[in-house]
Structure formats: structure tokens, C-alpha cells
Design a protein that fits this description.
By secondary structure, this protein is α/β, with parallel strands linked by helices. It has 13 helices and eleven strands. The strands form three sheets. A seven-stranded mixed β-sheet has the order 1-2-9-6-5-3-4, with helices on both faces. Bound molecules: nicotinamide-adenine-dinucleotide and zinc ion. Nicotinamide-adenine-dinucleotide binds next to helix 2, helix 4, helix 5 and strand 8.
Length: 373
């Protein structure tokens, strides 16, 4: 079993990762606190896929109370938070409750925010079931929900007591969701782990097949990377910003298309290619390295095409994002594979130019994977 300790001002916590971890009922019976205080928060879809494993982990039906919520991105709202809190009250959950979030980033972000605010804070355990959640959202303590005005605008830093990741649960993930997580894996390579990047260049085909050996190497490696970054900078004052590589444009793409065209990781895929181009144009990154980033992103799979009339809409979304973030719009630019730097100003003209060229820079992308999510 791989074990990483994440440092947090509110108390350090362990992240455990092993294939078959959730089947280890006896170990989990101790790790998951008192059975009568457990509330499993999940979604109907996740629960259908993960119930056999979780039932083993929880020691049968008596091992926890189950609350299912809608985990579509559109339901990541304050209304869902209120509903969940009210169900906890009705179920008799007190200050000593333990919320066990079983699901992807949506379940984790909502349950995490509820754990932060219900009775001013109850214990939280993450059991991430998507690749994004295992390598990213379950670690670092960011929780929150969306407003109509933008994503993740209401939330709290609220670290869990424990994170339990079992790569075996990824087997049931829809293909597009799985690949969406792989773009975030590529991100870890670019921002701080050249060895991971090279591994991905060599072994991407195995990872795309969800080969157990490849996944069991990659998932803990990314977890460690995330733990290292957030441990030193919980509130994103400095180094944690590197995790936003590909996200400046990625967020704008998601917003400009009403969050319907791209999965988050897919938008980040485009964003990473664009950021590499910005870095190349600014003379920070060698053309060959920019090409390697582009090639690896392209190999992960088909990206939905950019929206029609894209430049103006995307630039407008970036301006709106900048305003929502109190005038700060930072670009994370690679200097080489494994090293990035933060720039607060990149000229809009350059970004516009790169947006125009982006479909030619990534010429092989077929139109597949489009449509509503
Ligand atoms: N808190 C953070 O630091 C952080 C970081 C990254 C992303 N996020 C947030 O995470 C969300 C995205 O999360 P996500 O990518 O994990 O997707 P998700 O939570 O939307 O889940 C994707 C889909 O897969 C299904 N699913 C989940 N696990 C499954 C499994 N094992 N088998 C079958 N189906 C399964 C879900 O029901 C859902 O339909 C966004 O809201 C984003 O803002 C938060
Ligand atoms: Zn992301």
C-alpha cells in the first residue's frame, strides 16, 4: 500500500492508495471511524458501480447510512448543499458524524463543503472514484459549489481526515471521463515530474487500456505530486498555482461553451497546448518541448473541437474570469518539461493569435467526443 501524508494547518492527513484497498474490510472497519457515526455520501451512478466494494469496506448495510445525491455538474449548487444538510439533520447526524464522500470531484466538492459547514464542521473522508478525484480533487482540501455566475465561487478549505484510493474502481469509469483524468496526469508531468512525462510518452497505450500495473504506478505518483505542492502552500499563495497549468484557457473554454462541450480535463488538454505555445512564443520553452507536450496531449484522445467564432468568446470569458478573480489572471508557463513559471500578464493579442492557430497546431484531432456531456 502506498501512503502519503499531506500537511495541513488543520491537521495532517494520510492518503492511502492500493488496488483492492476497498475490499480490505477489516482494515477499513478501523480506519473509517465508528460505524454508527458514518454517513456515506454518493450518487446513484457511482453507487451502482462501487456498492459491492464499499459494502465490503463498510461491513454490510449496518456499517453506515447512505445518502445519494445528483452528481451532475449542474447540481453542484448551494441548493444541493442545503438538501444534503437537511437530510443529515433528519438522519440525526451530530457533531461527531463522519461524512464519507464516495465519488468523483462533484460528490467530493459538495460533500466536502457540507462537512466544512454542517454544524460548523464534521469529519470528512474521501473515497475518490474517478481518475480526476484520485489524482487531484480529493487531495488538498478545496471544497465548494458553483454559482450561476461561475464555477467554484463558494467554498472552503477543508481537509479530510483520510483519503482512500483504490485504482480498481476506475474500471467502470466511462472512457471519456477516464481520458479526461489523463490530461490532468499529463499536467503533473509538465509542471514538476519529467520522469512521469517520459513514462507517459512510453506507456500511454497501456494507461489508455487501464493496465493495472501502469495505473498503479501513475496514480500514487500523481498523488504524491499533489500532496507535495499543497502541503507547502495550502491556500495557493505560491507554488500551488502551478497546478493551474492549462487551466487559464481551460476555464475560459468551459465557460464560453456553457460547461456543455468539454469535460474539464479536455478543456485543460487544449489549455496545456495553448500554454506551451505561449511559452514558446515568449522564448521560454524550446520548440521541441512544446511539440512533445502537444503530441502527448493529442495521443490521450480526441478533444472536442473549439467553439465557432472562438477567439472573441474565449477572450471575453478570460476577461470575465479575471474580473471574478479580483483582477488576477495568471498563466502557468513551462520552461522545460518538469518546470514551470507563473506569469501574471500575457498579452491578449498573443493569446488571440494562438487561439486562431490552435486547430492547426493540433491537426490530427478528429471531431469525435463532441456534443452534450
Ligand atoms: N477540489 C478540487 O481541488 C478539485 C480539483 C479538480 C476538480 N474539481 C471538481 O471536480 C469536478 C469534476 O470531477 P470528476 O472529473 O471526478 O467528475 P464527476 O464527479 O463529474 O464524475 C464524472 C462521472 O463519472 C461517474 N462516476 C464516478 N465514479 C465512477 C465509477 N467509479 N464508475 C462509473 N462511473 C463513475 C459520475 O457519476 C459522473 O457521472 C468538477 O466539479 C471540478 O470543479 C475539484
Ligand atoms: Zn483541473
Amino acid at each position: 500500500m502506498k501512503r502519503v501524508i499531506v500537511q495541513s494547518a488543520a491537521g495532517d492527513y494520510p492518503v492511502l492508495c492500493a488496488r483492492g484497498l476497498l475490499r480490505n474490510g477489516r482494515f477499513l472497519a478501523r480506519a473509517l471511524f465508528e460505524p454508527e457515526r458514518r454517513y456515506v455520501i454518493s450518487s446513484p451512478r457511482v453507487w451502482r458501480a462501487c456498492r459491492p466494494r464499499m459494502a465490503a469496506a463498510l461491513g454490510g448495510a449496518a456499517g453506515a447510512r447512505l445518502i445519494l445525491l445528483d452528481d451532475r455538474e449542474a447540481a453542484k449548487t448551494l441548493r444541493t448543499v442545503e438538501r444534503l444538510c437537511r437530510r443529515l439533520v433528519r438522519a440525526g447526524a451530530g457533531r461527531d458524524a463522519v461524512l464519507i464522500a464516495v465519488g468523483g470531484g462533484v460528490v467530493g466538492d459538495v460533500a466536502g463543503f457540507v462537512a466544512a459547514s454542517y454544524l460548523r464542521g464534521v469529519r470528512l473522508v474521501h473515497v475518490p472514484t474517478t481518475l480526476v478525484a484520485q489524482v487531484d480533487s480529493a487531495i488538498g482540501g478545496k471544497t465548494g459549489v458553483n454559482l450561476r455566475e461561475g464555477k467554484n465561487l463558494v467554498g472552503a478549505f477543508y481537509p479530510p481526515k483520510l483519503v482512500l484510493a483504490d485504482p480498481a474502481v476506475l474500471a467502470s469509469l466511462p472512457d471519456r471521463q477516464y481520458r479526461s483524468g489523463l490530461y490532468e496526469v499529463v499536467k503533473y508531468g509538465v509542471i514538476g515530474d519529467a520522469e512521469l512525462f517520459e513514462y507517459l510518452e512510453r506507456r500511454l497505450d497501456r494507461l489508455l487500456r487501464r493496465d493495472a500495473k501502469a495505473l498503479d504506478w501513475v496514480v500514487p505518483r500523481c498523488m504524491r505530486a499533489k500532496a507535495r505542492v499543497v502541503g507547502g502552500d495550502e491556500r495557493e499563495a505560491g507554488p500551488r498555482q502551478a497546478l493551474n497549468f492549462g487551466h487559464t484557457l481551460g476555464h475560459a473554454l468551459e465557460a464560453a461553451t456553457g460547461y456543455r462541450r468539454f469535460l474539464h480535463g479536455e478543456a485543460v488538454g487544449w489549455g496545456m497546448v495553448a500554454a506551451a505555445e505561449v511559452a514558446r512564443a515568449e522564448g521560454l520553452l524550446a520548440p521541441a518541448a512544446a511539440r512533445r507536450i502537444r503530441d502527448l496531449v493529442t495521443r490521450v484522445g480526441p478533444l472536442p473541437s473549439l467553439p465557432e467564432g472562438r477567439e472573441a468568446r474565449i477572450l471575453a470569458a478570460m476577461r470575465a474570469d479575471k474580473k471574478a478573480r479580483a483582477g488576477e489572471l495568471r498563466w502557468v508557463l513551462p520552461r522545460r518539461i518538469g518546470r514551470v513559471e507563473i506569469r501574471s500578464e500575457v498579452s491578449e493579442r498573443l493569446v488571440g493569435e494562438i487561439l486562431t492557430r490552435l486547430p492547426e497546431i493540433v491537426p490530427r484531432l478528429p471531431a469525435g467526443g463532441q456534443g452534450r456531456i
